[in-house]
Amino acid sequence: MKQTTISDLKNHVGETVTLKGWLYNSRHSGKLVFLIMRDGTGLCQCVVFIKNVSQEEFESAKSLTQESSFSVTGTVKAEPRSVGGYELDVQKMELVQLAHEYPITPKEHGIEFLADRRHLWIRSQRQWAVLKIRHEIIKSVRNFFDSRGFTLFDAPIFTPNSVEGTTTLFETPYFDEGSAYLTQSGQLYGEAGAMAFGKIYVFGPTFRAEKSKTRRHLTEFWMVEPEMAYYDLDMNMDLMEEFVEYIVQQVLTNRRAELEILERDISKLEAVKRPFPRISYDEAVEIIHKKGLPFEYGNDFGAPDETAIGEDFDKPVMVHTWPKEVKAFYMKQDEKDPTKAKGVDMLASEGYGEIIGGAQREDNLDLLLEKIREHQLPEEAYNWYLDLRRYGSVPHAGFGMGIERTVSWICGIHHVRETIPFARLMGRLKP
Amino acid sequence: MKQTTISDLKNHVGETVTLKGWLYNSRHSGKLVFLIMRDGTGLCQCVVFIKNVSQEEFESAKSLTQESSFSVTGTVKAEPRSVGGYELDVQKMELVQLAHEYPITPKEHGIEFLADRRHLWIRSQRQWAVLKIRHEIIKSVRNFFDSRGFTLFDAPIFTPNSVEGTTTLFETPYFDEGSAYLTQSGQLYGEAGAMAFGKIYVFGPTFRAEKSKTRRHLTEFWMVEPEMAYYDLDMNMDLMEEFVEYIVQQVLTNRRAELEILERDISKLEAVKRPFPRISYDEAVEIIHKKGLPFEYGNDFGAPDETAIGEDFDKPVMVHTWPKEVKAFYMKQDEKDPTKAKGVDMLASEGYGEIIGGAQREDNLDLLLEKIREHQLPEEAYNWYLDLRRYGSVPHAGFGMGIERTVSWICGIHHVRETIPFARLMGRLKP
After folding, report:
1. pTM of the prediction?
2. Distance, CA of A117 to CA of A282 (rounded, Å)
């Protein structure tokens, strides 16, 4: 018998096929048992009619517990009223394992209860849909860069020093070298890559030992960081908006069923089309002040400020040209206003806040050295990085996009802990 | 003027284009300066004729130092005798930055000297070619699984316990949870993923604090780990060989120029076609003994043993059905011989040794519990993993392929430290 998957049933209408999976739900009435099977690709109602199977099989079908593993062989029928649009008329059923009493039931469970059972929770429809969309987003990220001449450039996880301060670093003993710190960003290494390959992207996990329990922070999260030689701030923004539009449109094209499971307002995503608004930091501050929020010029935006800015637009907005004190040492000083840095953040629509941070980088050796001293960073540790300005320095730019925040926005879900298979937060290291 | 890249010159013959890059090499004789530019996509000879440019430009071209950044505008000419097959007749040249004296010269440098300057070393042809092939391999890995219904499933890096013993773990303080250990393998999490999605692959960095300085060990390395529900050992081996054939053939198709830079014997790669030989551990031991190596039955293979087995075949060989003592607790016991485990290793051709380790997993709750006790593992820590056998256990299998070893084999290079942008080894944490 031909084995297939639920997602492929549309190609087998009228044929007899075998499906292998788990019991998602069931009901029976007299001579019929309705088994909703999940096989990891979708759901399918399998109809067991007492006259089509042996008595043993019928009894077995009736007594299947939630999440029991089993296989069925039967005829595929289009049935628009059924979940997924197809049904199986069962001729043969085989139990693989009768599941113990399953802890996750249709009733409401607390978030800690579910998080403790994350290895099982991912089997439920919403979590499954979120992680399918996560896959689509990551695939789109790679396709986008691979098809535009970028070279994948894996930056190291173990680093001898930090990019953005030492208070939020995870540290591990490293043989005779003292300590290694887990990377917070692959950017500096990515800049070395851009000088060797022209255009690169770093894509891997990054780590922050942040003691904040918010819905937007994980201690371990994935980030994609493209870096381009011979790019300025405007080219960087062009790429950012093309990139984000591409990802959103790919999800709309390929994962519509999953968005529907999540009851996502699809019209909001359909609006994510270039060009995105570009406003300066100064203009953004005006918006915040107009709305009466108590914001002091020169500070970084907090979550309420980001929401205030973002809600004025129906697509992501890019905020550029920041007071240099707010931003990292490596950002290029603005030629027109030396108090400003050529940084740019992208705030997602619908108040989801920052999903991208980027900048044109300082390519002038002397100015960069000055910045390192101003920020009281250990000059010796950055000597290799300064080499990139000694040996063929060029204008260059790049950005970093947090995967979990992007998944959260596109899926329309509140907390980033549901956007990765096993979220790690302060207070959450298991399972 | 139209800006393009060196890799795209073939589409611009006869046109006037601008290239932006760095000086790889140069020579001059009288009225001509020959500048070999690299732009990250390839090399191109730019011919500066004294009559075609200003005197300033000509002098600037003559005085360019190695790795200086510059742009040129000129006419594209097909020239089979030139590197890359095309030349640029320069009409305009612009210096971006005159590089300081570049430390890496065509003369021989020691490996530590080069490793200290890895951020620059990656600009040289061989390193560039290796990392381009690395990108191609990773892209092929993802394409392979994405196009076969697998879902990407990122396993956590921070784990509360270890898979393969505690002596080689990196450890970091984790808030009030005590210590977190850096993952050595995402497999156990991947098994949870397979039960939710059917077929998944974990793909991320993994860590081993191994105190061994060999040419095959890094402390941080990337691994891809597919895991499939309703798969047995034979199906696992079918997938392994299809997978490895695909990767090698993709590199041959898309990265032939890079293989040639590395002077790789391409015929050896062309031979990597299914089916691959499958031999049992017992048969492998026979081969070792026939060659007179001092190997004791029941041990794991060492590097010389792997070489002895591999050199008998012109393609990778799969060694299956191992004495259970050699293998991890989670491998399924062989039904025909309970002293054996259903593990399988793939040894690369040409003596490159193990690149894949895999197995059918133990799906019987009682046998798995027995194994955990036999191996004296902390039962409590594996309780969540045992849940996968309580709630819909199914036959399943998977494997893990080390990216750096695979790159090393396909590129035909001796040491894995050249197969990743910034290798981390015992004694090497910088830059």
Report:
1. 0.97
2. 46
